[in-house]
Design goal:
With 286 residues, the chain is of the alpha/beta class. 39% of the residues lie in helices and 21% in strands. The radius of gyration is 19 Å and the shape is globular. Bound molecules: S-adenosylmethionine (SAM). S-adenosylmethionine is lined by residues 5, 10, 47-49, 52-53, 71-73, 76, 97-99, 116-118, 121, 176.
Length: 286
C-alpha cells in the first residue's frame, strides 16, 4: 500500500502477504489452473519486485509453468531470479516501465496475468485498457493485495482517522500511470473485468499486524507519517505527535490494513464482449 519498493521493505511484508492470501481468490485461481489442463501455464507477473508473487503462487499452481517477471527495477528483478524456486518450467525477466508498454503486448502469450500490490498505484484508464487487452477466452487475471483504504489500530488514537484520510488522499497521486486509483482500485478493477465478461471473485486479503510484526509496523508508521506530511504539511505537529505515540506502543498495538484480491476468468466464445460469462462473487468479509 505504499510506494516504497526497496528490497528490505518487500522482504518484511512477504510473510504477512502470504498469510493474507489464504482466501477464495487464490482458491479460484488454483481451481481455474487445474481445470484448464493442456500446455504449460504461462504467467506474466506485473510489478514483480523481488518475486514474492512467484514464490507464493508457483508452488500452488499445478503442472509446468513459464513465468515472465516484469518490473522497472533491474536490481529487484535480479534478486527475484536469485531467489526463485522455479516451478517445472522457465522464468524470464523483463525490465520495463509498465506505463509505456502496449497492453496487448503485455497480455499476449500468457494464460494468467497477475500482480501483487500494484493495482492501487495505476490509473483507472491504464487498468481498463489492460483488462480490455486481457479479455479473451482461456485467460485470467489475479490482482492480489490491493490496498482498500482501511487502517484500524487497537488501541485507537484520536488522530488515526486524520492520518488514514491524508494517506488515502496521497494514494491517489500520480505514481507514474496518471492519477492512481488508490483505495478504489479493486472495485474499479472488478467492475471493468465484469464489464468485459469475466467471472469475478473478490476476497479480502487484510494484513493482521501484531506484536510479532513490530519491525514491519515501525517501518510502515514511518511511511504513513511521511505520506501524511507530504499531503498536509500544515498538520505537521499533529502528524509528528501521532508518529511518536504510535512508535511508543508498536510492540503491543495491533493494526489491520485492508487489502482486496480480485480473480477474473474469461471463458466462452466471446469473452471480450458484454456479460457472457456468469459472475460468481464472494464478497470480502468486512
Ligand atoms: C509494492 S511493490 C510490489 C512488488 C511485488 N509484486 C510484491 O508483492 O512484493 C510494487 C512494484 O511495482 C513496480 N513498479 C511500480 N511502478 C512501475 C512501473 N511503472 N513499471 C514497472 N514496474 C513498476 C515497483 O518497482 C515494485 O517492484
Amino acid at each position: 500500500m505504499t510506494d516504497t519498493f526497496d528490497a528490505g521493505w518487500l522482504a518484511l511484508r512477504e510473510p504477512l502477504d502470504a498469510l493474507a492470501r489464504a482466501n477464495a481468490a487464490t482458491e479460484q485461481a488454483v481451481a481455474w489452473a487445474r481445470r484448464r489442463g493442456g500446455d504449460a501455464l504461462t504467467v506474466a507477473d506485473l510489478g514483480a519486485g523481488t518475486g514474492s508473487n512467484l514464490r507464493f503462487l508457483a508452488p500452488r499452481l499445478p503442472g509446468p509453468q513459464r513465468w515472465r517477471l516484469i518490473d522497472q527495477d533491474g536490481q529487484l528483478l535480479a534478486d527475484a531470479v536469485r531467489r526463485a524456486v522455479p516451478p517445472s518450467g522457465a522464468i524470464d525477466i523483463a525490465q520495463a516501465n509498465l506505463a509505456s508498454l502496449d497492453p496487448q503486448a503485455l497480455a499476449a502469450g500468457h494464460h494468467l496475468i497477475t500482480a501483487s500490490a500494484l493495482f492501487d498505484l495505476v490509473s483507472q484508464r491504464w487498468c481498463e485498457t489492460l483488462i480490455a487487452a486481457i479479455a479473451k477466452p482461456g485467460r485470467a487475471l489475479l490482482a492480489a493485495l490491493t490496498y482498500d483504504g482501511r487502517m484500524v489500530w487497537q488501541p485507537a488514537l484520536p488522530d488515526d482517522a486524520l492520518i488514514t484520510d491524508l494517506v488515502n488522499r496521497h494514494q491517489t497521486r500520480d505514481k507514474g500511470f496518471g492519477a492512481a486509483m488508490g483505495p478504489a482500485a479493486s472495485c474499479l478493477l472488478a467492475a471493468a473485468a465484469r464489464a468485459h465478461g469475466a467471472a469475478v471473485t473478490v476476497a479480502a486479503s487484510d494484513w493482521r499486524i501484531g506484536p510479532a510484526n513490530a519491525s514491519l509496523h515501525a517501518a510502515l508508521l514511518a511511511m504513513l507519517a511521511d505520506a501524511a506530511m507530504e499531503q498536509s504539511p500544515a498538520d505537521g505537529a499533529r502528524i509528528d505527535a501521532w508518529r511518536a505515540a504510535r512508535l511508543a506502543n508498536v510492540g503491543s498495538a495491533r493494526l489491520t490494513v485492508g487489502h482486496i484480491d480480485v480473480f477474473a476468468a474469461w471463458s466462452g466464445q466471446d469473452a471480450g464482449g458484454r456479460g457472457l460469462a456468469s459472475n460468481s462473487m464472494s464478497s470480502p468479509s468486512r
